[in-house]
Here is the input.
Amino acid sequence: MAKKSYSFYPGCSSQKAASASNYMVSVDSMCKTLDIELNEIPDWNCCSASIGYAGGGELPRLALSARNMAISEKEHPDQDIVATCAACWLATKETQERLHDDDNLMAETNQALAEAGLKVEGNQKIRHMVEVLIEDFGYEEMGKHVKKPLDGLKIAGYVGCQTNRPFGIDGESYENPKYLDKLVETMGAEPIENYDKKVSCCGGALAFSEPEKSQALIKDIIESAYDGGADMIVTPCPVCQMNVEVYQDHINQKYKTKFKMPVVYYSTLMSVAYGGSGKEAGLDGQIIKAKQLEEIASK
Here is the structure.
């Protein structure tokens, strides 16, 4: 296929040494195989994610995403904006929708942006990377590049909240989205069909403010994966990945469980299946090691 180019918004978590930096490593590897060019938005800023709803007001929160959009329109006007982070994707899509629906809010936002010499129109398409993979490539094309099928692995597709509500992935059910299951199958592994926590919330930022509530939610997510016979969990969301992976020791201590479930990104699976090394797939960034993927990658 011919090279496809996108205006790329990486978000804070994918920066070097940040919580999802290994996500970006695997995305780069995956994109190299599929001939995807990601043109980073220059001088991009934080979308404000969860904290933006907690204080500061509506206009400052929306203006942050609007600034990214305005720069993208200036630098990459003919390209869709693509985000790998579910929170960044959601914040940017919300901003676009709100500005288009409210002329006064659009005017106020542009008044704020004018102080930096910018203006936003908000007409570029806002997409999550999984939308690009599904809509611009498709499962058949993604499957053609598999060199090391993930044979023998049973994987629970944990979609989480933010790529599912309120916008969702086009054509997918809100209650039972299948795109991660299909992607897992395309990479040669077996999806857990009866995984009943695939769209449950992990607690998001509650992991910091109300950890007991968040960890109770995470426990159910992991437990359901074990009940389905999963070897690991796959997700499209950096917050979900972080929460479900890093708090397992805390949950084990509190609930007397023995969880040690690897939680990886869809791009990690794809990088390994496409013949990438463990380092190229970002597996060295896992806290709970995905040993079965490491073994496949080392072959």
